[in-house]
Amino acid sequence: MIALAPIHATANKQTFSLLKNDFDNEISRLNGNIERFNFIHKTQFDTEFNLYKKIWSKITLISDVFYSIGQQLAEIFRVESDLPENFELKEKLDNLIKDLIFNSSELSETVSQNRPFYFQELYSLLSIFTVQTDLLRKYISNDDFSNINIEKFHFELEKLVKFSVDIEEIIRNRIDNLKVVG
Fold first, then answer.
1. Are 65 and 99 in contact (CB under 8 A)?
2. Long-range contacts formed by 37-46: CB under 8 A, 24+ apart
3. Do the Cβ atoms of 78 and 134 come closer than 8 Å?
4. Which of 17, 108, 152, 164 yields a CA-CA distance of 20 to 30 A from 35?
5. Dist CA 101 CA 3 (whole Å)
6. Between the CA of residue 134 and those of 6, 40, 65, 86, 96, what are the distances in Å?
7. Which tens digit of pLDDT belongs to each residue from 112-165?
8. CA–CA separation, 175 vs 48, rounded Å?
9. Is the pTM higher than 0.70?
10. Cβ distance 129 to 160 under 8 Å?
């Protein structure tokens, strides 16, 4: 019996050695999968986060331009139409409208080009925001500013603000759900 103990101990060492190698290989494979998952998740997070920053930047610019336009319209309505001051105000308004056209077309392009990188609910709200922006822009692009109803302008602007708040909430929730793992 004593002679069998070293053989049995050697067999156990070999078995444990094989099991340890199997476990080490499995741990290496799992670590590789975890690293791959973390890389993919981080890449997705970075892509979406940068896209959201770009979109939000344009929404903010568009909102700011609309508020400035509202102020200009109020001044135009306050000043008599044939005074030189009113011509300057209309020129400033035209420049604001040009800024608006530029920023809204950039937003539309960004939304369209990056559609696969965000989910449908956000895309729908962004589409509504761009359509509302375009409608409001067309409404104020009339050469005869006396046809503009300032109350209607403010009403439509408030709808635009509501869409931007909804977009902000969706983006914030998505970022919270995309926290970087690891």
1. yes
2. 37/181, 38/181, 38/182, 41/178, 41/180, 41/181, 41/182, 42/180, 42/181, 42/182, 44/178, 45/178, 45/179, 45/180
3. no
4. 17
5. 93
6. 87, 37, 13, 25, 14
7. 998 888 888 999 999 999 999 988 888 887 666 677 888 888 898 999 999 999
8. 8
9. yes
10. yes
Give the 3-state DSSP-derived string for 83-102, with helices as H, strands as E and coil as C. Answer: CHHHHHHHHHHHHHHHHHHH
The token pair that represents 13 in the structure block: 């060492």
C-alpha R_g of the chain: 31
With both helix axes pointing from N to C terminus, report the angle between 150-177 and 4-78 in degrees, rounded to the nearest 10: 170
95: tokens are: 């420049």
Report the C-alpha dihedral over residues 117, 118, 120, 122, rounded to 10 degrees: -140
d(CA 44, CA 38): 10
The answer to whether the CB of 116 falls within 8 A of the CB of 137 is no
CA distances from 97 to 35, 50, 52 (A): 49, 27, 24
What is the identity of the amino acid at 50?
N
